[in-house]
Design a protein that fits this description.
With 361 residues, the chain is an alpha/beta fold. The protein has 2 domains: 9-233, 3-Layer(aba) Sandwich (Rossmann fold); 240-360, Trefoil (Acidic Fibroblast Growth Factor, subunit A), CATH 2.80.10. Helix content is 27%, strand content 20%. The protein has helices spanning 9-17, 43-46, 54-64, 95-109, 120-124, 132-146, 163-173, 176-185, 212-227, and strands at 35-41, 69-71, 75-76, 86-89, 113-117, 151-155, 190-193, 240-242, 248-251, 262-265, 276-277, 283-285, 289-293, 302-306, 315-317, 323-325, 331-334, 345-348, 358-360. The strands form 6 sheets. Strands 1, 2, 3, 4, 5, 6 and 7 form a 7-stranded mixed beta sheet that branches. A 4-stranded antiparallel beta sheet has the order 11-12-13-14, with no helix packed on it. The chain has a two-stranded antiparallel ribbon with strand order 8-19. A hairpin with a 5-residue loop joins strand 15 (315-317) and strand 16. The radius of gyration is 23 Å and the shape is elongated.
Length: 361
């Protein structure tokens, strides 16, 4: 059988808050195969004064609710008890600064759900407040354009202790419901979260950032909003697309019987092409069937079988595009370098060819 190749704003907020900023850093991967959720915003997302901020209580609610979630972003902080430290909270940043970076972050981390709380620094810095609503609208547009299938939750900003700043915050917040509704009317997956109503000035430790109790109130508000949109906490199935063929890994005939071999087929929206890569390194379809290889030799058919936790049903999704069997080390391969509908999928020795390269999308 032949094969051939195929980051100023932070300082401003620190001075205003009179608080030392918690050191963050580049995110270390803590992926668990769950729904990818990006906490997005400024120091209130990062958790200034209470490292981890609302993410602590939100993570606890995810865990107790049985939700498997993978927090994502380029920043990393919080206590050891926080099960996932990744986030996209940038102390001192305004709406425009988040917007200048958003597309790159989204392309890197591909979140399914975005939790956006931004605008506090626009108020604190008195930065072109009349233009802040339009800036927020543009930011939301950029998010939905980059990840159009993502569920985007836009929060009103929390209260401020200073009376003048609080008045400006309320004026800004008053524009958000209408903006969100305009996105909904345009068919976008955008949702409003009344975060301002969830806290009072008594919940602030320094007039700007929440106390631990205040952050937990934020967590409760986020979680209630997420639960109201069930798809935000459900990992959508992904298509497994062959680099060479552009076609999808497909369970032949939409069958569910054990032993049904996979094939290449034109990508479509059917359940037999909807795959989920789990924390156990399984590739599942129909919710209960796993990608399975019954042997460890070249040419072994790749089929579906009831999930059982064995190594022949575990796969490594590699950065070079290959998908390799944990048991055998062999690659998922389109037989004979075929690209046509009906080409069977098998195991084969990894050789760098494009018929052994795949994208989960």
């Amino acid at each position: 059988m032949r094969r051939s190749r195929t980051w100023l704003g932070m300082l401003v907020l620190a001075a205003l808050a009179g608080a030392a900023l918690v050191t963050g850093g580049s995110a270390a991967a803590e992926s668990n195969g769950g729904v990818r959720v990006m906490p997005l915003g400024d120091s209130i997302t990062e958790g200034t004064q209470v490292p981890g901020g609302y993410r602590i209580g939100l993570w606890q609610r995810f865990s107790s609710g049985g939700n498997r979630v993978d927090l994502v972003g380029s920043q990393f902080n919080g206590p050891a008890s926080l099960g996932d430290h990744d986030h996209e909270g940038h102390p001192g940043w305004r709406i425009d600064q988040i917007d200048a970076n958003i597309a790159g972050w989204l392309r890197t981390y591909t979140p399914h759900t975005v939790l956006l709380h931004i605008g506090t620094n626009d108020v604190l810095q008195n930065f072109n407040l009349s233009g802040a609503p339009a800036r927020l609208s543009t930011l939301v547009d950029h998010i939905t354009a980059t990840v159009p299938d993502a569920e985007v939750f836009v929060a009103t900003i929390i209260p401020l202790a200073n009376a003048g700043q609080e008045s400006n915050a309320r004026a800004f917040n008053a524009t958000i419901p209408g903006m969100v509704q305009s996105k909904v009317n345009a068919g976008r997956h955008v949702h409003l979260v009344d975060m301002h109503g969830a806290l009072t000035a008594a919940d602030l430790i320094d007039g700007i950032h929440p106390t631990a109790t205040g952050y937990d109130k934020m967590a409760a508000a986020w979680y209630a909003a997420l639960r109201a949109v069930p798809g935000s906490l459900t990992n959508p199935g992904q298509q497994l697309v062959g680099t060479q063929s552009g076609r999808c890994a497909d369970v032949t005939g939409v069958a569910t019987a054990n032993g049904t071999q996979l094939q290449l087929w034109d990508c479509n929206s059917q359940t037999n092409q909807s795959w989920t890569y789990t924390a156990s390194r399984q590739l599942t379809v129909y919710g209960t069937k796993c990608l399975d290889a019954s042997a460890q030799s070249n040419g072994t058919p790749v089929a579906i079988w009831d999930c059982n936790g064995q190594t022949n049903q575990q796969w490594n999704v590699n950065t070079n595009g290959t998908i390799t069997s944990v048991q055998s080390g062999l690659c998922l391969d389109a037989n004979g370098r075929g690209t046509a509908n009906g080409t069977k999928l098998v195991l084969w020795s990894c050789n760098g060819q494009t018929n052994q390269q795949w994208t989960l999308r």
